[in-house]
Amino acid sequence: MSLPLLVAWRNLIHDPVRFGLYVGGITFAVVLIGVQYGILQAMLESNVRLLECLDGDLVLIHPQRASVMFRAAFPRQRLEQARSVDGVHCVMPLYLDYQAGEWLATGVARPQRGPARRIRVVGVDLQRNPLRTLNIPFQDWQRLQLPGTALYDRWARPAPPPFAPTVYGPLHEGIQGELTGQKLTLVGDGFELGFDFAADGTLIVSDRTFARYLRANMAFTAKDPLDDIDLGVIRCAADSSVATVQITLKKMFAAMPDVEVLTLSELIQREKRFWLMNTPIGFAFGAGMILGFIVGLVICYQILTGNIADHVGQYATLRAIGHGPAFLRAIVGAEALLLAGLGLTVGIAVVAAVQSVLTDWTAMPFRLPLQRVLALAGVTTTMCWLSARLAARHVEKVDPADVF
């Protein structure tokens, strides 16, 4: 262990009570930053959970559809054109509605039955299903072939007491209700998707049920209600290059203003960017993280300057025996790094515990992957290093005569 690090460690632990308070102060800043960042990411990721379930490599979408919650659609003809491209294994339509669908649990007696409430409806072609990772049994998908049936989201937004478990009332097999004023029956064991900014819950129906309940009254008489496609999910052949297929499709559709080709990851990032830039959450939680950084900076600065004042005689002695300002700055820097490491270790554990509790309460996708831990470590180290640079000005002024 280097001499500055050894001196820094002894300076910090000379008073165990103070040492605990020092670590607690840095931990508080780490938790403040980490929890704010975790909530921000969980809110953004909750809005792309449906997109993450798409079983494809590329997605066709209308260029004016800045978010999937909007209605701009493209003609089915584009799917047929995409199927003709070399390297395309299959093309699957996905229908989405965020505005027209209203669910009312008419089979539930009051007061458990709430008012009609808007719900997201997803329509799929059961022969070419574009969804995966929802853990829906095959037999549940098959039950959607019966008209007027739907799979339901068990993680729909909870309702406040004394009402039913969700804002839509009880959601389980056999519940009957109305969707856009037409009778609908819930089947199967449901799935877990959760709520987001645009939807409090989700129903999955067959494309024919979707057309009957949500498109028939909107389409022209001579037009097939399923001719307007919300998303076209493209799965590439195993031996093909996704990038090459995307380039080919972009060239094909270059002169067509009603469709663009994105990779699934590009669509997910665009959706996150829309909600980050067009809602207050980016500013609110960004300001919270900046505040946490400033709070940590001030706390660490106060710890370091207080520690310098407590050991001014020691620093004067080091100056008197020939150590220069650089050596004293190194001691202060080592103290800052030790505080950063200890505060980060405890802070990450607290952040993980808080996120676990929030996941149980909200069903939002709170995660703490390695890259976020590394980012939090970088922010904490920077915060403490800046504090050390500011506090080091005090130690540079120590006079050897102070030893007397």
Structural notes for this entry:
The chain is α+β, with helices and mostly antiparallel strands and 404 residues long. It folds into 2 domains: 3-47 and 280-403, no CATH class; 63-258, no CATH class. The protein is 49% helix and 14% strand. It is built from 12 helices and 13 strands. It has helices spanning 3-13, 16-46, 49-52, 77-83, 138-143, 207-215, 242-252, 264-278, 281-310, 312-320, 325-362, 370-396; strands spanning 58-61, 74-75, 88-97, 102-104, 117-118, 120-124, 149-152, 176-179, 182-186, 202-206, 228-229, 231-236, 260-263. The strands form 2 sheets. The protein has an 11-stranded mixed sheet. It has a two-stranded antiparallel sheet with strand order 2-11. Strand 8 and strand 9 (182-186) form a beta hairpin. Helix 11 runs antiparallel to helix 12. It starts with a helix and ends in an 8-residue tail after the last helix. The model has no long low-confidence stretch (mean pLDDT 89).
| Beta-strand percentage range | 5-15%
Give the strand line-up of the largest sheet: 5-4-8-9-7-10-6-3-12-1-13
Q: Fraction of residues in helices?
A: 40-55%
Structural class: alpha+beta
The biggest beta sheet reads: 11 strands, mixed
Ends: how far apart?
A: 30 Å
Radius of gyration from the CA trace? 29 Å
Mean pLDDT: 89
How many domains? The number is: 2
Note the total helix count.
Answer: 12
Overall form: elongated
Unreliable runs, pLDDT <50, ≥5 residues?
none
Q: Secondary-structure element order, as H and E?
A: HHHEEHEEEEHEEEEHEEHEHHHHH
The tally of strands reads 13
